[in-house]
Amino acid sequence: MGGAVSAGEDNDDLIDNLKEAQYIRTEKVEHAFRAIDRGDYYLDGYRDSAYKDLAWKHGNIHLSAPCIYSEVMEALKLQAGLSFLNLGSGTGYLSTMVGLIIGPFGVNHGVELHKDVVEYAREKLDDFIKNSDSFDKFEFCEPVFVVGNCLEISTDSHQYDRIYCGAGVQKDHENYMKVLLKIGGILVMPIEDQLTQITRTGQCTWESKNILAVSFAPLVQQNRADGEKPDTVQLPPVTVRSLQDLSRIYIRRTLRNLTNEDSQGKGMVQRLPQKRKRRRCRRRRINTYVFVGNQLIPQMGESEEEEHPEEAHTEVVVEEEERDIGDIEILKQVNMLRDQIMALPLPESLKAYLLYYREK
């Protein structure tokens, strides 16, 4: 499903449209969406469809519509340091965005039924870490994906602060999902064609809220012969970060803060060259009247005027010339954190470690 917002030319256009339609409402969700280019998760030859508000499926690879992911990200109310479980993690697109918000001291796990999709998600994650400049602007909680049926998770598994299920959940599986949630945690999943937010308020109490009417393929139940034991899914362990990892996190954080302070001190404003601005206009129907004999006959005409939210119109989009942005200094986008690390008097192997062995 999808199609709730206009198609964009690129990822930023798509996010602009989602903001305008109030699917993206908070700054941290907006920043995560802008950092991860949805088109990077499409197969070659299909990228032209990436910025439409539509779901996409090719074989076992599936992406929900952007408006769905927006509502999910907002409903999860993510914060730094939380634990997150993605049931039906797919390409890893959502898990990667979540990782940008929960940060390096969170937990980010995904369970996916299809082995080929898990391999695809790991490839996309590796590409993001090694090649995307967005990676250096955040502290990241790297997702860990496992293959398995999310209805067969081990009963002694740990609980999570936030859970999302990306497939339709039948009523008789609702309680199964709820027990994976910590008290105070939030679970977002589609139940009976409604995207639902469930908050665990106590040991045996929950509050539910319907968010959006949706249509999801149902969870796949494992086929097995009578008496045959299911393949139990073991969730990844929650591990303590090594001293090396902690050092890398804090060195990068310090350098990033110093870079930001230096930029602000010099009054430098980094901005991308502006695109042509789109002015939204609307066609307003105007009633005119013509005398024919003795009768007054109404005729419909059309005029264009700028958008007035109080009137119902048919929307069209026209282009206007770029705005003059005055004396704001426009600088070429530079990965300043990378430059800072490369300038350090350290062995090349240590620089590579601090850069997460990035290739760019």
What would the principal axes of the Cα set say about the shape? globular
Which assembly state applies to the chains in this document?
single chain
Structural class: alpha/beta
As a percent range, the share of helical residues equals 25-40%
Strand order of the largest sheet: 5-4-3-6-7-8-9
Which residues form runs of ≥5 with pLDDT under 50? 269-274, 281-331
Helix count, per DSSP? Answer: 9
Instruction: Please tally the β strands and state the result.
Output: 12
Distance between the termini: 36 Å
Order of helices and strands: HHEEHEHEHEEHEEEHEEEHH
Task: Name the average pLDDT.
Answer: 84
What is the percentage of strand-forming residues? 15-25%
| Largest sheet composition | 7 strands, mixed
Radius of gyration: 25 Å
Written description of the protein model:
Helix 2 (27-35) packs across helix 4 and helix 7 crosses helix 8 (336-343). Helices cover 28% and strands 24% of the residues. The chain has 360 residues and is α/β, with parallel strands linked by helices. The two termini are 36 Å apart. A 7-stranded mixed β-sheet has the order 5-4-3-6-7-8-9. The protein has 9 helices and 12 strands. It has helices at 11-20, 27-35, 66-76, 93-102, 115-131, 174-178, 243-265, 336-343, 348-354; strands spanning 56-58, 61-63, 83-87, 107-112, 144-147, 160-165, 181-191, 194-200, 206-213, 278-292, 295-306, 314-319. It comes from Nibea albiflora. This is Protein-L-isoaspartate O-methyltransferase domain-containing protein 1.
